Amino acid sequence: MSRLGSLGARLYRGEVGYDFVGKRKIWYGISILITITAIVGLAVRGLNMGIEFSGGAVFTTPKTAVTSAQARQTAQDASGHTAVVQKLGNDTLRLQVSDLTPDQSRKTQQALAKKLGVDTDKVNTDIVGPSWGDQIANKAWWGLGIFMVLVVIYLAIAFEWRMAVAALIALVHDLTITVGVYALVGFEVTPGTVIGLLTILGYSLYDTVVVFDGLKESSKDLTKQTRFTYSEIANRSLNSTLVRSINTTVVALLPVAGLLFIGGGFLGAGMLNDISLALFVGLAAGAYSSIFIATPLVADLKERDPQMQALAKRVRARRASEAAKADSGEPRDGEEHGEDGEPQDAAPAGVVGQRGRTDGRNRGGRGRSQGRRR
Amino acid sequence: MAAPKKGRRSPGGQGRPGRVLALILIAMVALTGGMFASGHTTPRLGIDLAGGTSFTLEAKNEPGKPNAINETNMNTAVGIIDSRVNGLGVSEAEVQTQGSNHIIVNIPRGTNAKQARKQVGTTAKLGFRPVLTATAGVKTPEPAPSASGKAGDKDKGDKDKASDKPDDKSGDKDGKSKESVKPSGSAAPSASTGQQGRAVSDALKADGTPSPRATASVSDGKNGSTDPKKDEAKKDGQSPSPAPSASGGTDMAALQKKLDALDCSTPQGRAQANEAAASARAEDPVVACRKDGSVKEILGPVAVEGTAVDKASAVFDSQGGKGWLVQLKFNSEGAKKFADVTGKLAAKQSPQNQFAIVLDGEVVSDPSVSTSIGGGQAEISGGFDQQGAQDLANVLSYGALPLSFDVVTETTVTAALGGEQLRAGLIAGAIGLGLVVIYLVAYYRGLALVALASLACSAVLTYTIMVLLGPAIGFALNLPAVCGAIVAIGITADSFIVYFERIRDEIREGRTLRPAVERGWPRARRTILVSDFVSFLAAAVLFVVTVGKVQGFAFTLGLTTLLDIVVVFFFTKPLMTLLARRKFFASGHPWSGLDPRRLGVRPPLRASRRRPSAPVDPKEA
Q1: Best of A116, A132, A163 to disrupt the B interface by mutation (most B CBs within 10 Å)?
Q2: What is the ipTM metric for this complex?
Q3: In this structure, which of A107, B98, B221, B475 has its CB flanked by the most CB atoms within 10 Å?
Q4: CATH class name, domain A56-128
Q5: Beta strands B286-290 and B362-365, pairing class
């Protein structure tokens, strides 16, 4: 762990790092591939919609000696529809019958109870009318829409529109991937899944926002210097918050993993499982997208800004001239002195050796990057 | 969001962390104390954890009446369903609206879900039925049907022919002068009479107080001329002629028997009677209880449907000195029927000049009529207090509610499964928490103590608030809410991570712990606020827009997000400030999680040249 700690330090100082922004095309490509796969999967396989969306009933029996086959027969006889029976860990059965009306469902419940020799109300039932799923889905869409609009407005105010756009794209990206995974793997979509999906909204953005916050901080006085372009600053900021991103993701995933384990291992199925599954996929996608997609997108958008283009030009000009100077053998000591001139500069270590870029040596010396001044 | 807290913080944060800490500790103690004082030490559990039955009803507009789904109508419907379900003797059934067009009915385990479902699933029906016989509410010891029965019969026959004869009259609800109900000896059968001293309707009318009156003077069908009646009867598709009377005859005897057997004096008896009466067809006569149980009555077929009421409102009549009264407005068809029926009723003697306002088989009010009321407007007066008038107006309005309800979901959870789910949720939470603790300790060492204390603080606050919200706003912990709480562990822990990483960054810059803690805070604070705001926004939108299970989840998520901010501001930060003064942390003990060497602060050559003591500043200890 302490190794991670010092890795954190080196990341923070920019000694090591990954050029997220520079290699963005690769990651865009990967994301587009994944997204297309997800969409194709969705189109071809479709989602396996649970009872809650098609209407029908789910029965969970108490502990019983009745076999799955017997129970299925009973349910099918009583309901006239195909029943799916699942044996749960603790000798209980879970029967699912689609397309039932509430009345048929109640009849089936009674038949099952009779077969099992228990009271009717000892059989857990979940009866859902066919319109309910549409309602939930509808409301979820509404929630999604409203939330996106609000969040874009908020981010545009708190940060700027480019970040808002990038965050939104990352969000859609996460949702698409999660839904795609559901389609491809064939997990059943239930209200629990919807809850999980909607939570990803908050979570994915939460992560993105933390990264953006660091980015905003780093790029505050960007135009007053000529050392780094926006993309470089963005990349640096990403790397320096990388440890936090990893920690956050791990800490967020751990409880969800607990849920998933318990939900899947203990109860066989149900709300816990559904929520945690969607969350797990979504969280992973969210952590990925805020680093590999959202920030590079912001950088891309930013570099189109005339101000930033001008900056990039100045930076290039400066580097060219410095390269010339370096060739002429300007002593490096001079740079050190310049640094000392800055008050408050307790530990200037950070700037030196910007991640071993080819030109890092040249940029190394004077002053600190604007981003790190506080 | 930040602004107010910032203000409070700056004096407290740096200067008096102890005071801020004390404040939140006091708050925690107070909440815990409040929890014990309120007598609830565990959160109220939802149906899926405690066992029970839960219905979701979806409101539908009745054909031809769009836009009826609004808050007022829904709230009235909730009131009616609530009294219906709880009237079963089901205790603690809970009825509430959700979203714009759903009503959730939660019935705890141990009650008859089937019966409850029946109650919940049927549409509330309001109707005006003529009173044929009225008698005291207790079980009649010796039925004395005899002649009176026949009389009733005849009446009924007549009425049937006349189609429906509803009517209204003025009456009052309970309490005070119950003029409307009196059994006067004459036509009324049997025992009804003497028992209650208040068989005074006529007298009361004479007093002027309780009489019903038509506000609108004009009515076509006045006086109940026969022709219109016949017309109406035909319209209604009832066979006008003798058939009804014949059947009515046998019915009447049976009804009288039923009436005798009826016991309106106990809630159970009333519930049964109501159920039976509610399920009867509109064209059949029924026996029913007055709401307060004091009177039972035989009622004729529905004369005017409740849906014919356009509007009902309680008004105070200051000019006429009649006090509170209920004004009714019928739609055109209703007005006609009403005029018709009142005309007929007015000619009769008490109690047959009364009509009963029947809601779900229960007689809510049974005013008497002294004259035909036309024009579609009527008012019911006499002995109301404000509450009484408003209640009746509500009931009448409900009859006018163009809503019907479908049961869209029905969930029955046995106590066993509920307990299991609760246990699974708790275990999942414990495992999740355990994993987070292990990770934090491994990574942050001593700092993890701060994180754990903060998590514990957050847990105490969340738990006590959830418990207190149970009685306060009816919050019930359900499975999605448990999930929300577990997911929130991550969000809460992240706030600490953001802050810790900031502090460590500051230390990497070469600062000593105390300044690092203070300098790291403003930036960490902003990040935490911004990101928590997004999370809260998501929760709020979900809560407002969605229904059912999603809502419980959103609620917990929002609550824990808010608490996260409280905890970070008022607990974690001050605690950090205090701890930064301890040698263990300030000196960067290897187990403190703040060891500069482990954090990779190199005493760089340059730095040491300039500032010998740079990275670690022992004087702080």
Answers
A1: A132
A2: 0.73
A3: B221
A4: alpha beta
A5: parallel
